[in-house]
Amino acid sequence: MPKYLTLDESRSLLDVAGDEDNRNNIRDLAIITLFLNCGVRLSELVNINIKDIKFSEQKLNVIGKGNKERTIYLNNACVKTLNEYLNVRPKEGIKYDSVDALFLSERRERISNRTVQVIVKRELQKAGLDTNKYSVHKLRHTAATLMYQYGNVDIRALQELLGHESISTTEIYTHVDSTQIRNAVESNPLANL
After folding, report:
1. How far is Cα 93 from Cα 113, in angstroms, rounded to an integer?
2. Beta carbons of 99 and 51 less than 8 angstroms apart
3. Which of 65, 133, 156, 175 is catalytic?
4. Is 137 annotated as catalytic?
5. Catalytic residue chosen out of the listed positions 41, 89, 138, 141
């Protein structure tokens, strides 16, 4: 069973990521928002270029495993935080090979995997969440699980969104808890005879 944040823990994480005590709060909030809303992989996130985002269509193209390109549709939270970040993203002094990169480090170069891992760990700690239990990859699990549990997302759609080659990989997100089982029984139309 994959570990994932609950809906309330996810909201807490988004709340602390936007704290103004961090000079990169707008960038970091955009990063956490993409992880929790789109289920992108770490490697996909750091390799996003500005041109990969189509705001008019609310979509993002990423290069996943096996160098396969896929489209991820952006919800309003993603569009909002990305726009806010692009408004404060450095415009000058960017290293020549990072000019197209969406997310930049303090050194004005493409953000590294390690820097993103440090950001996520710091934000998890600020939210009071166990950093031994949760990580960047667990945010991907969280996005998939929340979409499946709360969004009634079809497993095939989830497979496409996550870029899984096999449906069996996606099936790990279809775990159910006792509340879901109870709700299933309660929702039977014969329950109140």
Report:
1. 21
2. no
3. 65
4. yes
5. 41
Question: What is the per-residue pLDDT for 2?
Answer: 65
* Catalytic annotation present for 122: no
pLDDT at 95: 95
CA distance 45 to 13: 18
Angle formed at CA 4 by CA 159 and CA 74, multiple of 5 degrees = 50
Task: Give the Cα separation of 119 and 104 in Å (integer).
Answer: 13
> Does 59 participate in catalysis according to the annotation?
no
Q: What was the pLDDT predicted at 4?
A: 87
Is 65 an annotated catalytic residue?
yes
Check residue 145 and give its pLDDT: 82
Active-site residue, 164 included: yes
pLDDT mean over 98-121: 96
Average pLDDT over residues 40-68: 92
From 110, 138, 140, 141, active-site residue: 140
Distance CA 170, CA 163 (A): 9
Q: Is the confidence at residue 193, as pLDDT, over 90?
A: no
C-alpha to C-alpha distance for 120 and 109, rounded to whole angstroms: 19
Q: What is the residue-averaged pLDDT of the chain?
A: 86
pLDDT at 44 over 70: yes
Say how far apart CA 128 and CA 130 lie, in whole Å. Answer: 7
41 annotated active-site: yes
